[in-house]
Amino acid sequence: MFQDIIEILSSWELVSYMIQGFFNSILVTLISALLGLFLGFVVAIVKIAPANKWMKVPKIICEAYTTVFRGTPVALQLFIMVFAVFAIPGFKPYAAILTFGINSGAYVSESIRAGITSVDKGQMEAGRAMGFTWLETMIRIILPQAIKNIIPAIGNEMIALLKETSIIGWVGSTPGTLTFDLNAAASTIYRTVPNYLASGILVGCCYLIVVYAMVFLIKCIEKRFAKNER
Amino acid sequence: MKDNKVAQALKTWTSRLRTKKEERNAVCHVPEETRSDALISVRNLYKKFGKLEVLNGINLDINKGDVVAIIGPSGCGKSTFLRCLNGLETPSAGEIILENEYVFKNERVYLKRKMRAMKEESKKTGKPLPMDEFNAVNEEYLALRKEEKAIAKYMETAINLHRQKVGMVFQQFNLFPHLTVLQNITLAPMKLKKVGEEEAKAKAMELLKKVGLAEKANVYPSTLSGGQKQRIAIVRALAMEPEVLLFDEPTSALDPEMVGEVLKVMTELAQEGMTMIVVTHEMGFAKEVATRVIFMSDGVIKEENAPQEFFTNPKDERLKEFLSKVL
Ligand SMILES: Nc1ncnc2c1ncn2[C@@H]1O[C@H](COP(=O)(O)OP(=O)(O)O)[C@@H](O)[C@H]1O
Ligand SMILES: [Mg+2]
């Protein structure tokens, strides 16, 4: 097995697959994460906003969104999005990223919502009673308190997202395209060096490196926000 | 020459904007004939939570400088009443007027009820509906609805301005834990009244000195005792220079030894002429500091009097029973 690992590492072509996969995995995760965070934030705010006639339809849409995207497998969503909804030539990787982002947004919105509802109800009342609008109170008073509960949950979600993106190759991937991620690299390497364990260990290490970096990053962010907690 | 034209255009434009704003504002003016000197007038205020009737017709005028103590059994709607006054709850019917401007007005429900009663009456007796009378009521209803909807629409945005005039102090303090004491106090004046930072801070320090907590300006609320927290909460409300301060059981969450320091601050405020409405179980405060005492029960004001008379010569049976329990 060590021989196989060394064989992989000594072939520039195979190593370049891994490097490509490494950066594609990170890139896909990053863009999906940004999309998911944005969507999740908006959806959480809509769900938590007081019910009035303007919010009725948005609330129903957001409720349906989280139900559907948390209630069905992401692989199924990926196939539907890539082969049915966005069956446009050359759009495959973007449709996939869109799927991961939208899927992740559903989970992120629940994390944010849980964080916000964990803040004492009296805080909103105090803000409103002073004359702040609902949104102003949310931004100035509730969110700064909720953020320290939200960040660990979102961190978990981002780590899960990285690994979730490993199915992107299922819609077809060739080296040089965005869908060629770490997992796809492993299968391609296998064709030259037919040892799953060897390529699996190498690619697994790559994933671990990324996850470790993410954990470190999340810790830093957590610390930064814990500063104004007494 | 050209400058003149621009200036002229700008002038007409701003004046047009101003009249538009005044027009919108005008819907809230109380008509001449019903104006009063009262700071706050509450008329026939009702509040229902679903089927639960909590307020059943509250009538109360509060003048500038009044210190009104509200007492009553738990669950009788005291908190709900205060929350209606600053718009944290929307009443079901009645009027709330602040400085001769409607904050809330819903009288049309009575007309609607009247029309429904007329219809039912005619159905029961088999007599035809008295059309003239019915139409008159209906017309009145439609006119009132138009007026009240305009007020409600205006208040959707103006409610936040209204709240700036009506400060509130809560039982649970509700200080913002992520901000220092000073930031707690200066947040609203700076963001809502656009007071400069230096000025807001100076004002906050002055108020903090008054309640004896100047050295706590830069600590976080969680390091304070309950009594200190409540004094800061009072300062925070005062920093907005409200017309009236509402207190909802400000000492009920405090350890007994801390009640005194909070009551002392409130007493000083009362002596300075601050208008206050205080829901309290502190009979000593009601007796000595309040200018009027009100007994609420079953969602109505059962008795209202000057403190001396109120405590020595209560008339309402429920009040007698209540006082015998708490005194
Ligand atoms: N948001 C609400 N929804 C439903 N019922 C409520 C709500 N707020 C208060 N109530 C009910 O209204 C009644 C009066 O409450 P409250 O005004 O808090 O009484 P008090 O302050 O005099 O003790 C209680 O029976 C309470 O259960
Ligand atoms: Mg209460």
Q: Sketch the topology of chain B as an H/E string, one letter per element.
A: HEEEHEEHHEHHHEHEHEEHH
Distance between the termini of chain B: 79 Å
Q: How many strand elements of chain B?
A: 10
Helix content of chain A: over 70%
Oligomer: heterodimer
Task: Sketch the major β-sheet of chain B.
Answer: 6 strands, mixed
Number of helices of chain B: 11
- Gross geometry of chain A: elongated
Proportion of β residues of chain B? 15-25%
- CATH fold type of chain A: MetI-like fold
Separate helix tally of chain A: 9
N→C terminal distance of chain A? 53 Å
Number of DSSP-assigned strands of chain A:
0
CATH superfamily of chain A: MetI-like
Observed structural traits:
heterodimer; A: about 230 residues; mainly alpha; MetI-like fold; about 80% helix; B: about 325 residues; alpha/beta; six-stranded mixed sheet; four-stranded antiparallel sheet; binds adenosine-5'-diphosphate; binds magnesium ion
